[in-house]
């Protein structure tokens, strides 16, 4: 199966879904646990028929869904078809799905010699490095991935920074909220791929989207 890039996924016009690293995600607002359980069971039946299975998180008033083709290491047409099926189930249940509150967290470690510290983090986090990549990933896809970025050695410096992936339409509201909370927009030079912000003490974070990227 061919892995789809962000632009190809956007062309599918999947309302309520957001493309974040390696997968499609949505949040179903169920209102109560029983409704959520019924929806999870309905998704499970469809997934079995399609022989393609999502990651589901059932909470009291919501269900989070993540779709990815693990064998292809990305989003394929199998995920698009299942996303449409999930959307149909949600519509039939009379509840709503949304992506405005959905995000995916990654951690970046800035280091002048990251190859020497990566084995430590792989061991302590019980993570793996996929073939052909340098990132560390959780085999269960529960904990955030860790990637490494070469930096200078000048002190003081920030070692860790979070990358928050989200729907492109949600970037400006997040920036506005962060600035209103005392933060600053450090750089938008790489927008719309990512924006760099800092809290009042100068700790930096990146808001990231699929836009202007190959994948």
How would you describe this structure to a colleague?
The chain is α+β, with helices and mostly antiparallel strands and 215 residues long. The protein is built from five helices and eleven strands; from the N terminus they run H-E-E-H-E-E-H-E-E-H-E-E-H-E-E-E. The strands form two sheets. Strands 7-6-8-11-10-9 form a six-stranded mixed β-sheet. Strands 1, 2, 3, 4 and 5 form a five-stranded antiparallel β-sheet that branches. A hairpin with a 6-residue loop joins strand 9 and strand 10 (194-198). Helix 2 packs antiparallel against helix 3. The model has no long low-confidence stretch (mean pLDDT 94).
What does the largest sheet look like? Answer: 6 strands, mixed
Q: Please give the number of β-strands.
A: 11
The secondary-structure class comes to alpha+beta
For the termini, the CA-CA separation is 15 Å
Radius of gyration: 19 Å
Give the DSSP E fraction (strand runs of 2 or more residues): 25-35%
Query: Overall mean pLDDT score?
Result: 94
Number of domains: 2
Q: What are the segments in which pLDDT stays under 50 over at least 5 consecutive residues?
A: none
Strand arrangement, major sheet: 7-6-8-11-10-9
Features:
alpha+beta; Gyrase A, domain 2; 2,3-Dihydroxybiphenyl 1,2-Dioxygenase, domain 1; 2 domains; six-stranded mixed beta sheet; 29% helix; Glyas_Bleomycin-R_OHBP_Dase; Pterin_deHydtase; lyase; Putative pterin-4-alpha-carbinolamine dehydratase; PCD_sf
